[in-house]
């Protein structure tokens, strides 16, 4: 019977198996349950194959078959290295002249005193995330904010029913806002770059990086306000608003919400995304400068879904899909054509 001699590798590349893992139907579930009851010795193999299919999500974001097989081989190596604890670590060496070191130390001391003074006099609360970190913040009104890596959320610590609900975001965050009908602060405002987002009860993603601010609405209804130009845009679920600080354009378009908030579930999803934009995401979230040495390569499009907490798997997959060579040097990731 088919599948009886399949390895983990062969299960992962089988389309019917992928469909069952990612988009199961009553028929496929019945087939695999019966098959596993008939061949219980294959349960461990099937379990491992299911885990890997979910990791790359071949079916939803398909790669050519030969590329899928190459990625599989890379993943096997990466998984083995993780088990053996052979993770590569950069070890940059920084050299300082004595004079400059003394100057830097003086600056740090002054900044430390300024920070202490500010923290004692400020009435703001600030939440930050490091590179590679996400954090969930519960606001005083029970609204939930999930901060992406390298991001900051600021709010007034004196929130009450009689004060406006407003926060400031630098970086990227996902909001789930609670409604407060009948209260003076029912409206909730998010300040991000040049844009103000006014909401009641809704969920949306805000991304404010590299001179651009985007708002992706998942549920509810929001009003995006550009104070400087006195422009307002009302958004419905499934719409994306983007503002470019450099050319001062404010555009609204339909979009797939999952593409803009998959990071919240520990995944990055790219759909026909130029490689230079993928590089920007890596840099914004991991603090590693990505250098693409070939201009034509920068604009080649990329489609795929990867775990956002495993930079090595992301880089290995890019290496295979683009037939490039990736070299890590101190804080840089260098992508060259072979």
Question: How would you describe this structure to a colleague?
Answer:
With 338 residues, this protein is of the alpha+beta class. It is 35% helix and 32% strand. It has ten helices and 18 strands. Strands 1, 2, 3, 4, 5, 6, 7, 8, 9, 10, 11, 12 and 13 form a 13-stranded mixed sheet that branches. It has a three-stranded mixed sheet with strand order 15-18-17. Strands 14-16 form a two-stranded antiparallel ribbon. Strand 10 and strand 11 form a beta hairpin. The longest helix is centred in the first third of the chain and has 24 residues. It is globular.
Brief sketch in words of this structure:
The protein is α+β, with helices and mostly antiparallel strands and 338 residues long. The protein has helices at 8-13, 15-22, 26-38, 43-56, 65-83, 98-121, 257-261, 275-286, 295-298, 311-322, and strands spanning 124-128, 135-138, 144-147, 152-156, 165-176, 188-192, 195-199, 203-209, 212-219, 222-226, 231-235, 239-244, 249-254, 267-274, 289-292, 301-307, 324-329, 332-337.
């Amino acid at each position: 019977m088919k599948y009886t001699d399949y390895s983990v590798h062969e299960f992962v590349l089988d389309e019917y198996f992928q469909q069952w893992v990612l988009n199961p139907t009553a028929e496929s579930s019945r087939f695999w349950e019966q098959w596993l009851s008939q061949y219980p010795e294959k349960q461990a193999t099937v379990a491992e194959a299911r885990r890997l299919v979910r990791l790359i999500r071949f079916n939803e974001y398909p790669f050519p078959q030969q590329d899928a097989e190459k990625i599989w081989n890379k993943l096997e190596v990466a998984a083995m290295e993780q088990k053996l604890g052979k993770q590569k670590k950069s070890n940059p060496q920084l050299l300082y002249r004595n004079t400059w070191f003394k100057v830097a130390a003086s600056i740090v001391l002054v900044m430390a005193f300024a920070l202490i003074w500010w923290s004692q006099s400020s009435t703001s609360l600030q939440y930050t995330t490091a590179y590679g970190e996400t954090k969930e913040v519960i606001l005083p009104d029970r609204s939930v904010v999930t901060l992406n890596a390298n991001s900051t959320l600021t709010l007034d610590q004196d929130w009450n029913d009689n004060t406006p609900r407003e926060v400031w975001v630098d970086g990227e965050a996902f909001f789930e806002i609670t409604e407060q009908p009948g209260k003076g602060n029912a409206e909730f405002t998010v300040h991000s770059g040049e844009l103000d987002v006014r909401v009641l009860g809704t969920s949306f993603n805000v991304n404010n990086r590299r001179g651009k601010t985007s708002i992706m609405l998942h549920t509810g209804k929001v009003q995006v306000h550009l104070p400087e130009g006195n422009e307002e845009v009302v958004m419905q679920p499934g719409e994306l608003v983007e503002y470019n600080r450099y050319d001062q354009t404010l555009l609204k378009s339909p979009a797939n919400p999952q593409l803009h908030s998959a990071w919240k579930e520990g995944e990055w999803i790219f759909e026909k995304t130029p490689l230079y934009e993928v590089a920007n995401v890596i840099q914004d979230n991991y603090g590693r400068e990505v250098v693409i040495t070939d201009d034509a390569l920068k604009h080649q499009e990329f489609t795929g879904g990867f775990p956002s907490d495993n930079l090595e798997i992301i880089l290995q997959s890019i290496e295979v899909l683009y037939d490039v060579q990736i070299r890590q040097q101190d804080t840089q990731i260098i992508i060259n054509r072979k």
